[in-house]
Each structure stands twice: as C-alpha cells, then as structure tokens.
Amino acid sequence: MAQRRSLAVPYGALVLAVSFLACVATGLELSVNNHAADFTLSTGLDPAISLSCLVHNSSQAEELLWYRGDGKVDLKDGNKVNISNICISPVNESDNGVTFTCRLARDKTVQVSVILDIQFPPRLSGEETLHVEEEKDVTLTCNSKSNPQGQSIWLKDNQSLTLQQSRHKLYQTSEVFQLSISKVEKSDNGTYTCVVESPLGNGTRDFHVIVEDKKPVFPKEAIIAAVVVVSITVFFGIAARKDKFFKVW
After folding, report:
1. Measured CA angle at 150 (ends 147, 151), to 5 deg
2. 151 and 199 belong to one structural domain
3. Do 54 and 30 form a contact (C-beta atoms < 8 A)?
4. Residue 198 and residue 148: Cα distance in Å, rounded?
5. Which residues cross the membrane (predicted)?
6. Partner residues linked to 206 by β-bridges
C-alpha cells in the first residue's frame, strides 16, 4: 500500500503542473499595433511601415516570431522577447496583400496577423506606334496596376471613342485593358489613348495607329502551277523541234 501511495503523489503533481502551464499559456495574448485580433492595415506608398508586437499577461520572458506569408523573418537577439518590432521599408506595390504574422514561440496558436492594403494610383505612360494593313485586325493593350482597381476609357484623337459593336471589342482584367479593332479602315487612322482612372489619380498611354494600303495578294499555289506549266510546255516544245536544232548546228 505504501508503494502505491508514493507513486500516486508524483503523478498527481505532474497533472497539476501540466494544467497550470496550460492555463498560463491560454492566458497569454498578443497585440500588433494595439490590435488584439487580425486586422487590415491600409496605407499608401509610404517610406516605411512599423509593426510592433507585444505580449500581454506574461509572467516570464516569452519569445516572439514574425512571419511574412509563410516565410520566417530574421530578428536580432534583442528584438525577440515580450516585444518585437519590424519595419517594412521602402513600401512598394509588391507589398500589397502580403500578410505579416506575430506568433508566440512556445505556442504558435497564439498569434495576430495583419494584411497590408497598399493603395497606389495607376502606373502607365508612354506611347507606341502600330502599322496595320487595311482589313487586318489590331489590338491595343494597356498594362496597368492600381489599388483600388482602376477603370479604363478609350479616346481617339482626344475625343471619346464611339464604339461599333461589329468592329470594336473591349477586354479588361485587374491589370490588362485592351481595345480590339477588326478589319481596320482608313478612317481608323489616328491616336488612341488608354485612360485608366482611379480615386488616387489617372494614367494614360497613347497608341498611334497608321493604316496602310492593302497589299496585292498573289496566290502562291497559282504561281507555282503556272511556272510548272510553262516549264513543261517549253521542255516539250524544245523536244519536238530538236531535229531542226541539230540540223542548224
């Protein structure tokens, strides 16, 4: 009986210890920039963004981890315990939609994430010259990114373009704006401007369309056939008169 009692005491103490540690871990909380839950941080193309992660209700030193997406962020030794700061600098368009997460090292379920909402105006400019033959098709393509997403309009010679359903087609995604013209005519000559509008600003790109005369088309098969016929005719003509040629020589 004494042996059983001596074994039961350590086991009970172990259960209490595990329960106590679980309570301690559960009571810990994190906050990022004073947010205790996941949030979205909206900002422009600022020089830098600072994120500060803080441990709450801790009774001991707690190590913190930072992640950019699924990748772990390297932290200096003095920037890991109970409070940890990271800086994104410079902020650019590629940071839009990226998630940064601060986690407790010994219990990674304790975490707070922040999604970056980087807002910027459309980025497009310049010009392009396109030569197209009459009755051929042509497509003008604008590539532009912006946040919030921009909307496109097309101008011709600085005037609103009148779209003809049978000849003009528009295509738009979040980053691509296209105008297609089928069977171009001489009247399609001119400067087409792609204008991408957003609440933060506009961007433009010019396309100089030059419609050239339709080139005469010679069917290759007919030319080859004609050459073959002429060659055969000449050959048999010479063969038929070979005796006369020999007499002359």
Report:
1. 165
2. yes
3. yes
4. 7
5. 222-240
6. 127, 193
- 144 token code pair: 């532009």
Residues near 67 by beta carbon (within 8 Å), at least 6 away in sequence: 73, 100, 101, 103
* Per-residue model confidence (pLDDT) at position 174: 87
218-242 confidence digits (pLDDT tens): 556 666 766 776 677 766 666 666 6
Are residue 93 and residue 62 in the same domain, yes or no? yes
Residues 91 and 34 occupy one common structural domain: yes
Q: Select the more confidently predicted residue: 34 or 58.
A: 34
Shared domain check, 40 and 95: yes
Question: Residue 66: which domain range?
Answer: 27-120
Mean pLDDT value across residues 54-71: 95
Q: How many Å apart are CA 42 and CA 118, to the nearest integer?
A: 6
Pairing of strands 201-212, 127-133: parallel
83 and 154 in one domain? no
pLDDT at 239: 64
- Sequence-distant (≥ 6) Cβ neighbours of residue 51 within 8 angstroms: 32, 33, 66, 85, 86, 87, 88, 100, 102, 114
Residue type, 148: P
Last residue of a domain, one of 62, 97, 120: 120
Between these two residues, 26 and 129, which has the higher pLDDT value?
129
Query: Edge-to-edge strand order for the sheet containing 99-104?
Result: 39-43, 107-118, 99-104, 64-68, 71-72
The whole-angstrom separation of Cα 192 and Cα 211 is: 13
Eight-class DSSP state of 188: G
Q: Are 90 and 136 in a shared domain?
A: no
